[in-house]
Specification:
Two copies of one chain form a homodimer. Chain A is an alpha/beta fold and about 210 residues long. Chain A folds into two domains: about 70 residues, Arc Repressor Mutant, subunit A, CATH 1.10.10.10; about 110 residues, Rossmann fold (3-Layer(aba) Sandwich). Chain A is built from eight helices and eleven strands. Chain A has a six-stranded parallel beta sheet, with helices on both faces. Chain A has a three-stranded antiparallel beta sheet with strand order 1-3-2. In chain A, strand 6 and strand 7 form a beta hairpin. The longest helix of chain A is centred in the N-terminal third of the chain and has 19 residues. At the A-B interface, helix 1, helix 5, strand 10 and helix 8 of A face helix 1, helix 5, strand 10 and helix 9 of B.
């Protein structure tokens, strides 16, 4: 059972905690104090203690956190203990790059297929996948119990794709199209607006220059 | 001259304003009221008025905003009126996808080249670019007045690349490696941590499911 009362400011920090703890675990560290973790992550030790207390603590006074347990617990909170299947819609450059990325499966995400509306791309190879037609999405989403759709289509097509996959039972959209999508209550949208991130960078550079 | 006193919460919203205004301009809309804009953007009209007042207003009471002017002015604040050259370091899947992306030049970003440390990739084609060796970065950054480096290398190599390009005079890093980079005061870092975004999505799905 998830606690829905935790502020989104806290939950947004969890993936970063998870990343640091995974790296510590991978390098064989068994225990870490909030002070050490705070120095690595450049956040205050009191923020770390406060954040973790939202989820029941995980630590023992004067003894530090057990890295493996903490990593597992935060992974559970993030829902990473549940394997989730995803499809990529749009076999353009971004869709292809995501299909080739090896890091998803480590966090419990399983790429089930990559789809395109352009029939001339259907059957072409992207990494270990063969591009499928969007016309098979409905059946595949239902039969394979797919929950996440990655939208990597041009922005003018993105809302139609979103409507379609929500109707087919998708509950999460990872949106790379440069548009804000409308989605029903049953579906969560997470945006990656690359150009906006680059504009942020440009702004911060120009502030420094002035 | 930029006003450095504006909160980052406001400046972070500017790229999104810029996007909506660009789209309005492209569809031939000349004027828009804060009310109409607020309905499209799903933010309150008073937030819009307050945000814009930080930069001197742009609007006339009862007459709305001139879309083209507003777009130009926000573009200036974002530093988009200055053409900025960038290099991509890392010709893997993400680096290739970014090199093929057509949307940067519209916002004043000019891709100058794509580089890799793997000599077997040097000379291979990525879109209209031919991959260059990182050994020519130093000269190219200086000679071409390049200000932005896109880091799309594996995470274990990212800090070394960051150190190198900062030494060569880069003032902004757009970082796709899944690691937090240390950079000198002279250099701004903007992170795109894709896996963390996907974990956020997983969390929000699992909250809905519970």
């Amino acid at each position: 059972m998830k606690d829905k009362g935790i502020s989104s400011a806290v939950t947004k920090r969890l993936p970063r905690y998870y990343r640091y703890l995974s790296d510590l675990k991978a390098s064989g560290v068994e225990r870490i104090s909030s002070k050490e973790l705070s120095e690595r992550m450049k956040v205050t030790a009191s923020q770390i203690r406060q954040d973790f207390s939202n989820f029941g603590g995980f630590g023992q006074q004067g003894y530090g956190y057990n890295v493996e347990n903490l990593c597992t617990e935060i992974g559970k909170i993030l829902g990473l203990d549940t394997k989730r299947k995803l499809v990529i819609i749009g076999a353009g450059h971004i869709g292809q790059a995501l299909a080739n990325y090896q890091g998803f499966s480590k966090r419990g995400f399983i790429l089930s297929g990559i789809y395109d509306a352009d029939e001339s791309l259907v059957g072409s190879h992207v990494g270990e996948y063969s591009v499928k037609s969007v016309s098979s999405l409905k059946e595949d989403i239902k039969n394979d119990d797919i929950k996440i759709a990655v939208i990597a289509v041009p922005k003018h097509a993105a809302q139609d794709v979103a409507n379609m996959v929500c109707e087919y039972g998708i509950t999460g959209i990872w949106n790379f199209a440069l548009v804000d999508l409308k989605a029903p209550e049953s579906c969560v949208v997470e945006n990656v607006h690359l150009v906006e991130s680059l504009m942020n960078l440009a702004y911060n550079i120009s502030v420094k220059e002035s």
